From TrEMBL:
Entry keyword set: Lyase
RNA-binding found in the keyword field: no
Organism: Paraburkholderia aspalathi
Record flagged with keyword Glycoprotein: no
Name of the protein: 2-succinyl-6-hydroxy-2, 4-cyclohexadiene-1-carboxylate synthase
Superkingdom of source: Bacteria
PANTHER family in alphabetical order: HYDROLASE, PUTATIVE (AFU_ORTHOLOGUE AFUA_2G14860)-RELATED, MONOACYLGLYCEROL LIPASE
Cross-referenced SUPFAM superfamilies: alpha/beta-Hydrolases
Length: 276
């Protein structure tokens, strides 16, 4: 069976120049549903241990249903993108940097201009959901809408406890070998995510105040059985963004696109249809 982390034929790479916030980066990306060449773009932002390969076929299926073209990419440190040097720790505001610096630079590198960005949707899961919220807050006039799936807007005990348990599994079971199928440098991906979430300084991280700047249509989705966050996350989004629509899914954990794909896709399709 082919290793997804080394299956490069379907992926392309964008070179991002060095800036004050990061060195030169090579970003793995892929277009899905390319037949919809003139349709709005949906940008998919993966979870804290995710990559292009870990999305599997969900972005393609969703884009076909929405009639959109999808851009899927692996953030630095993940998949086949530039790995994190093992002595580098992500800063507490690493998600803000992804929304402020990395995603705009990738859009520039792919010649996605202002008019296309105004029609663009960002769809993020977990850490990627938080990045989607931050991008929407930072670019209130350059986006058609945002969808945040199991996002984090502050740190809860349940998140830290589950992430600590995941570290134990990574170091004592076959979890590392399983994740290695999706990342060229699996330790770069795992410890970049795990170390910052378990850093005591990260307990003070929150993006609640930033949410009020979001003006675009916003859908926030959470599963009732999520072991990485409670309904307080999207309830807080609803309080700070009154126009946001909240969807709470039964029999669903932290990954609705895997746990309850039909219910998730129905909710997203209905929400997007209302904005057109």
């Amino acid at each position: 069976m082919q290793n997804p982390a080394t299956a490069t034929l379907a992926s392309e790479f964008a070179e991002l120049p060095a800036t004050a916030s990061h060195g030169p980066l090579r970003i793995e990306y892929r277009w899905v549903n390319e037949a919809a060449a003139n349709a709005p773009i949906a940008v998919f932002l993966h979870e804290g241990l995710g990559s292009i390969a870990m999305w599997r076929d969900w972005p393609q299926a969703l884009c076909e249903r929405l009639g959109m073209r999808g851009l899927v990419y692996s953030r630095p440190g993940y998949g086949l993108s530039t790995p994190r040097a093992h002595d580098v720790k992500w800063p507490v505001d690493f998600m803000t940097s992804q929304a402020r610096d990395i995603l705009p630079a990738l859009l520039d590198a792919l010649d996605i201009g202002a008019q296309e960005r105004k029609r663009m949707w960002v769809i993020g899961h977990s850490d990627g959901g938080s990045i989607a919220l931050l991008y929407a807050a930072q670019h209130p006039d350059e986006l058609a809408g945002a969808i945040a799936i199991a996002p984090h807007v502050f740190v809860e005990d349940i998140s830290v406890e589950s992430i600590a348990q995941t570290k134990q599994l990574y170091e004592t079971t076959d979890l590392r070998s399983k994740l290695a199928r999706y990342h060229a440098d699996v330790d770069s991906a795992f410890y970049g995510w795990n170390d910052i979430w378990l850093n005591p300084a990260f307990r003070e991280w929150r993006i609640v105040d930033e949410l009020a700047a979001i003006r675009q249509p916003l859908l926030a989705v959470q599963g009732h059985d999520d072991n990485y966050g409670t309904m307080a996350q999207i309830d807080t989004i609803g309080e700070r963004v009154p126009h946001a629509q909240l969807v709470k899914l039964d029999a669903c954990g932290h990954s609705p696109h895997r746990d309850a794909p039909d219910a998730l896709n129905d909710a997203i399709a209905a929400f997007v249809a209302k904005q057109r």
